[in-house]
Amino acid sequence: MSEDFIPLAAPNVGAREAANLQACIDTTFVSSVGPFTTEFERRVAQATGSEGAVATSAGTTGLHAALLALGVGRDDLVIMPSFTFVASAAAVAHCGADPWLMDIDPATWLLDLDQVERELGRETERRGDHRVHVQSGRRVAAIMPIYTLGALLDLERQKALAARFGLPIVADAAAALGAHSPAGEDLAGGADLSVISFNGNKIATAGGGGAVVGDPALLAEVRHLTTTARTSSDYTFDRVGYNYRITNLQAAVGCAQVERLDAFVATKRRIRTRYDAAFADTPGVRLFPNVEGSNCWFSGLIVDDPRLPTPAELSSRLRETGVEARTFWKPVHLQAPYAHAPAADVRVTDALWNKVLTLPCSTALTDAAQDRVIAALTPMLAEALCATTRPTPEGSPPLP
Ligand SMILES: *Cc1c(COP(=O)(O)O)cnc(C)c1O
Questions:
Q1: Is ligand 1 within 6 A of the CB of residue 214?
Q2: Residue 379: its pLDDT value, please?
Q3: Could you tell me where the beta strands, DSSP code E, fall in 92-202?
């Protein structure tokens, strides 16, 4: 990698993280207990408006434990949007359940709650304490909204909808740390349990790691399940437990990062605003959704004109100029392990996913570097349209 290479989303770590790591070494607290773990949980709880938090080894393991704590089990169905990172679906599959895939709202890229309401009304019925998918006879066990790009929208609506059908909510808030709803509500208020990721490409990282926030009684169950389900120090266990703990080393980095969260969110929003200003009037492309309160985790464009190079082509051409850009999530219903999963009409997802181009948005990105990205991409978009809008010889049909 050349010095001038501009990465897509690199971790922003430095002296504070280093000092915390050194403290772990000095005190020998490097493993799964330690003061940073406790402090990390306190800070994540505070940042999300939760009474508590349970740190986990990853976002994916946090999601798995949250689903288990809410009783999701073998052959159940969990409603979620197909347009997500595949880990959301994997966590459901780890419970022996299947996702029931739904579409997104094109204006926000968030779970289409109108469709969820329609499908639950049309395809399910109540049997005793359960909500059952009539055609398959399978229990619908939970709804999993994804806070895509760090946006939370209708928290009250999603809770009212879930309550009406007697379903719990596990929110995949992997990339949403630091976000609020447009009404100013805290993240943890939108679901029974919400799960944050501290993977390297998220807004704050712990190297790797996750955290579950939400209802205190459910969090106690999550803690039990993620710490081997031990009931006493004499090696007695009451469940099949998991070792999903974070280490004090990871939490040490995570603590320093959460301390910097407000600055990270401000930078992410500024990066988004600058890209939006640069490309707002560019023909053939559209901007990412703008939901108030979003942490603007990722920036990029929707490449919406068939005459333009595809996002994959643009990414490889940008790479030649030292700029890392990428395509975005290929939806779950197109992934082989989930081909059998029930899916509603997902036409919005189908029309969107391969038009998305993500652009460099590290919190360490300088204005000068971002200007270089804009300067590299602008002619690639303009050339393609110029080439096809030149006047055609008289009498010949216009190019498609
Ligand atoms: C990153 C991410 C995950 C997975 O988190 P890990 O910490 O990498 O396991 C899950 N869902 C979404 C939407 C994500 O962006």
A1: no
A2: 96
A3: 98-102, 124-127, 130-133, 138-143, 170-172, 193-197
